[in-house]
């Protein structure tokens, strides 16, 4: 069953950027993205290099891993560029007032 977990305040995530959040319910942290007025969340660790994606380059809805340059679609989690082949876990983001919550399973 999904659990609603506080991620951060909307103001914590500037437009067209990504930040790392570490709610206690998620072992390795999450990446929270603000793209074209919408918020997204994925697991923060690259499925290939085990490095934080929140330190990577965000271009539209694509995040590039800072280690090997692999890429993921932040909406679907799909791996887009090698060496990444395993998709990311994605989480639904709920906006309530100025707060962002994620639905974590």
UniProtKB/TrEMBL annotation:
<keyword id="KW-0408">Iron</keyword>
<dbReference type="GO" id="GO:0051537">
    <property type="term" value="F:2 iron, 2 sulfur cluster binding"/>
</dbReference>
<feature type="domain" description="Rieske">
    <location>
        <begin position="5"/>
        <end position="102"/>
    </location>
</feature>
<dbReference type="InterPro" id="IPR036922">
    <property type="entry name" value="Rieske_2Fe-2S_sf"/>
</dbReference>
<dbReference type="GO" id="GO:0046872">
    <property type="term" value="F:metal ion binding"/>
</dbReference>
<keyword id="KW-0411">Iron-sulfur</keyword>
<keyword id="KW-0479">Metal-binding</keyword>
<dbReference type="InterPro" id="IPR017941">
    <property type="entry name" value="Rieske_2Fe-2S"/>
</dbReference>
<protein>
    <submittedName>
        <fullName>Ferredoxin CarAc</fullName>
    </submittedName>
</protein>
<keyword id="KW-0001">2Fe-2S</keyword>
<dbReference type="Pfam" id="PF00355">
    <property type="entry name" value="Rieske"/>
</dbReference>
